[in-house]
Amino acid sequence: MAVHLAKGARDFLPATMRRRKEVISRIEKVFERFGFEPLGTPAFERIETLTGKYGDEGDKLMFRILKRGRGAASGQADMALRYDLTVPLARVLAMNPGMRLPFKRYQIAPVWRADRPQRGRFREFYQCDADIAGTESPMADAECLAVAATALGELGFDNFVVRLNDRRILRSMVQVIGEEGREVGILVAVDKLDKIGRDGVTAELKKMELSDEAIERLWAILDIPRGHAETLDALQPLLNAEGVAGIAVLREVLELALAMGVPAERIVIDPTLARGLDYYTGPVFEAEVLEPHIGSVAGGGRYDGLVGMFSGREVPAVGVSLGLERLITVMEELGMLGAENASATAIVTVYSEETRSHSVAAARYLRDAGVNTELILHTYKLKNQLKYANARGIPYGIFLGPSEIETGTITIRDFQSGEQSSIPLEDAPAWFSTK
Amino acid sequence: MAVHLAKGARDFLPATMRRRKEVISRIEKVFERFGFEPLGTPAFERIETLTGKYGDEGDKLMFRILKRGRGAASGQADMALRYDLTVPLARVLAMNPGMRLPFKRYQIAPVWRADRPQRGRFREFYQCDADIAGTESPMADAECLAVAATALGELGFDNFVVRLNDRRILRSMVQVIGEEGREVGILVAVDKLDKIGRDGVTAELKKMELSDEAIERLWAILDIPRGHAETLDALQPLLNAEGVAGIAVLREVLELALAMGVPAERIVIDPTLARGLDYYTGPVFEAEVLEPHIGSVAGGGRYDGLVGMFSGREVPAVGVSLGLERLITVMEELGMLGAENASATAIVTVYSEETRSHSVAAARYLRDAGVNTELILHTYKLKNQLKYANARGIPYGIFLGPSEIETGTITIRDFQSGEQSSIPLEDAPAWFSTK
Q1: Are residues A144 and A272 in the same domain?
Q2: Each residue of A194-207: pLDDT tens digit?
Q3: Edge to edge, what strands does the sheet with A77-81 contain?
C-alpha cells in the first residue's frame, strides 16, 4: 500500500518541530508581556457560525465535516474546520455575555483552508492572534499594532514596516470621486500598484469606466507621500466627513503606537492599504518584511460589527494575526533560527547485557536530578551506540564499563571536543548544571 | 441568531486554558527528560490511512471531511480527522524509511472522535503520547511505562497503579482452555469482573456456551493473585509456549521498569488486563488512579505490526498515551492545580487623558524590562479600572497621577495586602524581580 499525507498537509519532524516551538514560544511570551490571556476554541465549528463571515471565497474554502451516523451516508455536513481564529473569538464573546470587557486574548493554533496547495501555501497552517474586545479606544488598536511590531522585533526582524490605514478612508476616497459602491473593484485595481505600476492601474480603472476626472482625483489622493502625521494632514482636505473621522482615529493610533515603542521608521500611513477580510470596520494595518521582500507577515484591524452578527449585543474589537508559516520560512532562509538541539543533554550507553542495570540506574539518577537523558535501548555494539548518539545530536555521552562500575564512577565524553572526564555519578548533576 | 458550539466541543477560557497549559508543559518536560523528541502531524489524514486500524467502532467514529469543489456537492469524503496519534506516527515511519531508529517521539495534540457526547466525554480531546519505534527490546517497553509513571508522579499523583499484561498471555489463556478464536468475547466478559463480580462473569461465560471445565481452567488463571514475579511464576505452568514467551518478556519489562524508578507498589502484573485497540501485539499496560477511583488515565503497549500495514517494512514499536482530559478533571476536583494567575504581573492605570502618555510610557518601560504588564485601555474612571484589575486577578497596580509625574515616580500597590510604595520608574524592574 502506497502511503501519503493528505494533500496540502505537512509533518513536522523533530528538528523542524523544535524550531516551530521556539518561534511560537517567543511570540507567546510577547503576547503575555502585553497582558493577553490564552484562549482555546475547538478545531471545528457549526457551519452556520463560519459561513458569511469571510466573503464568498472564504465560504468556498471551508473544510466541511460530514454528520455522524446516517448523515454521513447522505453526504450532509453540519460542521466545518475553523478558517481563522477571529470568528471563533467572536462566537465566544457572543456566547459569554457576562465576560468582563475588555477581553484581551491570544490564540496560537492551526486553521484550515481548502486552498489549492502550492509552494509555501498549505491547507493546515498556524495563526498567532492577539485581540482586544470590548473597547473602541484607539489605545486598543495601537496596542495590537505594537504587540505585532514587538513580536517581529523579538523574532529578530529589524527591517519591516507596518502600513496603517482606515476602512473609512478607503470608503471616503471612493465616495469623493463619485464612485460609491464600487469600492471593491477600485481597491483591487489600486492594490496592484506595486505589480503593474501607475499606468497599469489607470488602464484598469478606465476599463471599469471611471471618468478621467474621477481617476485624476483618485491619483491626487494616492500620490500623497506615505509618512506619518503629514500624510494625514495632506489627506484631510481631500476626503469627506467619514474619511476625516478615520483620519482623526489614525492620528491617535499612530501617536500611541509610537509611544508604545514602535520605532518611527517601522510605521507608515498608507492610504492604499486595503485588507481583504469583509469584517474590518476601522483602522487596518499590515506588517511587511522589506528585505527579503516576502510580503505581509502580519495583519490586523478593527472589526466592530462581527460579534453583533452572532448576538444582539455589539462588542467592538480589534486584533492582529501573525503568519507563523511565512515567518518561519523566512527565518529559516535567513538563518535566524539556531541549530535545533536534541531534547537530551546526555546519552547513557550500555556496555553489555550484564552491566545494563547500572546504565539504567545511572539514567534514572540523572533524570531524577533534572538532566534530560536518553538511554541506549537497542544495541550492545558500542560503535552503533556512538553512531546513534551522533545522529541524534546529543552533546554528551556517558559510559559505564566494568572499570567505572568497580570504582563507582561514570565517564562523560563531550562528543564535540572529544574530551573525557571520569567523575562519581553523584557529581554528574552538578557537572551538567555548569554546561 | 442563536449561537452555539459544535456538539461535543468545548471552549477553554483563559483560567482553564492556563491550567491546561501548565499540565501539558509538565508532561512535556518529563517526555523530554527521557529524551523523547517532538513530532507534529496534520489534523487530517487520508481516509485510507486511518480506516481498518482501530476496529469497526473506530471506523464508525471517524470524522470525515468533504472533498473540496465538486466533491462537496456529491458528498464524497477523502480525508478524516485523526482518531489518535499512533496511526499518524506509523504513517510517518512508513513514509520516512531513512529515519534513524530507534525513533523516540512525543506528541501532545487533539484527536477527534464522533462519540455520543456525555459527561466527561468530548468529540475533541487531547492525547499526550510518547512512543519508541524501531526496537523490540523490552528496554523500550519499560521506558514507556516508566515515562508514564514519572509523568503521573510529576503531576502530583501518588496513588495510582500500572497494570501490566501481554497480548500473548491473553491469547494463550484462551487457547489453553480450548476456546481459540473467541478471545474478544471472553475478554469482554472477564473485563467486567470489577463491575459484575465473579458470579456475573461466570454466568456470561456460560451464556457463551463455554464448558464448565473451560470456565474452571480460566478461573484458575484469573484467580492468581496480582503481584510481580510471583504472579508470572504461578502463571507459567498454566499457559502454552506463546504465553510463556509473553511471560519471559514481562519479567524483563517489570524488572527494568522498577530499575527505571517506577515504585514497586505502583506496578502489578494483571493477567486480566485486555486493552481494546486492535493493533497491540506484545506487552500492554494501563495506569489507574485508585483514589478517587476514576479508572484509566494512561495506557499503552507494543504494536509491532502497525507500521508494516503501510509499507513492506516492519518497524516494531511501543508507546504510551496519557489521557489529558481525565487527568485535568481529576486534578481540578482534587485541588491539585493552583489558582491560575493572570498573564500580567502589573496593571498600569491611567489617571486622565492628559496623563495617558505617561502611563503608556511606563507600560512600555516595564514590558521592555520583561515585566508582563497590562495597560488600562478603556476608561478614565479609577473605580472601573480597579474593578477591572481585580476581576483580572492581576497582583500589582501601578499609578501615575500628577504628583507622581512631577516627581518622576510611580506608585505600586499590592492589591492583596493593600500596601503601597512610591519608587522611581527605573527601579520598578528590580522591584518586580524580587516578587
Answers
A1: yes
A2: 889 999 999 999 99
A3: A44-46, A77-81, A64-66, B64-66, B77-81, B44-46
